[in-house]
Amino acid sequence: MKTEAKLWVRLKVIDLVAQTAWMTLTEKMGFAGDLCGMLRYSHWAMEVEGESAGAVCEAIDREIRMDSTFTNQNKHYYSLAVSGGGDEASSGDLRIDRDFPRGESGGRIFACDLFVSEQGGGKDEGYASRLNARLDGAKVTGMKSGEVWRILVRAEDAEEAARKVEEMAVTRTRKHGLLLNPHYQAFEFIGTAEIDGQ
Amino acid sequence: MARSFKDKVAIIQFPGVNCEYETADAVRSVGLGADLLRWNEDAALLEDAIGVIVPGGFSYQDRIRAGVVSAKDHIMDKLSELAAAGRPILGICNGAQVLVESGFIPGIHWERVDLALAPNVMEDREGYYCSWIHLLHGGTDCVWTSAIGNEKVVPAPIAHAEGRFTTDDAAVLEEMKKNGQIVLRYCTQAGLIDSSFPVNPNGSLENMAGVCNREGNVLAMMPHPERASWLRQVSEDLGGEWGMKRRKAGGDSGKMETAGPGRIFFESLKRWKEGGE
């Protein structure tokens, strides 16, 4: 049976890369009024053949816990969610649907998940073959890896939030865009949600 | 006495760089003055400088993407002004990443980011790679390479993880080629362009190792000329004329202190200055 597995991993300690991005966007690039918080995750989205969502989840979970390419339990929280055939299964110590940075209150705040991946380089194939060499009873048939920036912005609506995030993220000129260089990185929004004022 | 960069080359010290002192020494080795300027000092001091070098290292620990955080620093406003006015500016390795992320290179559309220095793509390995490589010089007149003859080969060391010049804009690439902006290309010891590893050590498009702006006053190069400015810095294992020279000089401290192949980039600047700028 074909299933979809999503693995989210983030540091347990303060993420200095996200902190630097925050400071650069707010102190040097003029987004102090819009940006309410940032988190950064490593992200793997996989297509996996297996007996059931539960069996796939168990097999992948066993491997990622033992392979620091994906998670190191001394350093990372993670969330693994598998769905397929009407079933769902999950594992890990991170509640991705509730993982928001503490930020400012006031106004409407949207959390935008921006997935950034590298074009070329063969990393995805490497991750897939690494897992397939060890998985028991499951086979990874598709892999998309990258980083997700969860960016909280103040906006009137979801469209405006996405526009602001794109403006922050995509480097077009010296003064515009920070998080990705479109000449070798691709991006897509994989989730946008309004969150309660914090 | 007030601090001044008159008759000196300014080396910008962003937090995390680690080649600033040897770059200053390499500039001094050709008889020019050099001094460091911290990124948060008064950028107006750069007004008097002969030129500016953004040295190698790991500015801001390469966080987010190598060079991008420095590119957003206020000091880059002054560098942009100086570069547009024709002042020589050189970015070495991490400095090259800063200039690319600032849109000074290729600079066809000033300050538009038209290139990337992406992670290396190499055969059977990934990440950081250090080695000596060979550079074929050609293209337009560039302040920083003017003392190198056309079609001449210069050996130099590289050390980087994100050195692959690339663009997704075919028109920009064509324009760069038409303008002769690709002044340094990875080549064999004999000067042949070969796109495979290890001749091209990072998968760079068109074997690009150094790209200048149209006007030739700004150069971004991944190899480290300051690490090849004395013969003692040359690898004993290097093939060709420079390797032979180095092996012959073994044990002779006088000869070891003579010029290495990388010094020619700084000699080029001196030639430009003496030629009346």
What's this entry about, in short?
The complex is a heterodimer of chains A (198) and B (277). In chain A, 25% of the residues lie in helices and 40% in strands.
What would you call the shape of chain A?
globular
Order of helices and strands of chain A: EHEHEEEHEHE
- Please give the order of strands in the largest beta sheet of chain A: 4-3-1-2-6-5-7
Radius of gyration of chain B: 17 Å
State the CATH superfamily name of chain B. Answer: Class I glutamine amidotransferase (GATase) domain
Helix fraction bin of chain B: 10-25%
Q: How many β-strand runs of chain B?
A: 11
Instruction: Count helical runs of chain A.
Output: 4
Distance between the termini of chain B: 27 Å
Order of helices and strands of chain B: EHEEHHEHEEEEHEEEHHH
So what's the CATH class of chain B?
Alpha Beta
Any overview of this molecule?
The complex is a heterodimer of chains A (198) and B (277). With 198 residues, chain A is of the alpha+beta class. Chain A has helices at 16-28, 53-66, 123-132, 158-169; strands at residues 2-11, 35-50, 76-84, 87-92, 109-118, 138-154, 185-195. Chain A is globular. In chain A, 25% of the residues lie in helices and 40% in strands. Chain A has 4 helices and 7 strands; from the N terminus they run βαβαβββαβαβ. Chain A has one domain (2-195). Chain A has a 7-stranded antiparallel β-sheet. With 277 residues, chain B is an alpha/beta fold. In chain B, the strands form 2 sheets. Chain B has a 9-stranded mixed β-sheet with strand order 2-1-3-4-11-10-9-6-7, sandwiched between helices. Chain B has a two-stranded antiparallel sheet with strand order 5-8. Chain B is built from 8 helices and 11 strands. Chain B has a single domain, classed as Rossmann fold (3-Layer(aba) Sandwich), CATH 3.40.50.880. Chain B is globular, with a radius of gyration of 17 Å. Classes of the chains: A alpha+beta (198), B alpha/beta (277). At the A-B interface, helix 1 of A face helix 2 of B.
